[in-house]
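wait is this the right file?? whatever heres the structure
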């Protein structure tokens, strides 16, 4: 079953937030195809981050700054800002 989408899909905001926090990442999947001109209608952004504690901390900081919520817990209000 697909996960419900958040109220708005703002991939640019996500990518800018990751860059602002110096997260080392690459975009993969449908959104990457769209950027490269392949006709596709992505509804999410898939990323892979560099595997390091420093980069994981930067990712968490970026998600907190964007008030991101855990997609697998829709409606729970569980954000990345809370343990």
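ok assuming it is, sequence goes like this
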């Amino acid at each position: 079953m697909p996960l419900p989408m958040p109220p708005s899909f703002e991939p640019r905001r996500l990518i800018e937030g990751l860059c602002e926090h110096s997260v080392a990442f690459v975009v993969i999947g449908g959104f990457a195809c769209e950027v490269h001109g392949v006709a596709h209608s992505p509804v999410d952004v898939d990323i892979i981050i560099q595997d390091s504690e420093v980069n994981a901390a930067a990712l968490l900081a970026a998600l907190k700054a964007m008030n991101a919520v855990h997609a697998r817990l829709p409606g729970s209000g569980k954000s990345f800002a809370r343990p």
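Residues 64 and 81 are 5 Å apart (CA to CA). so i think its the right one actually
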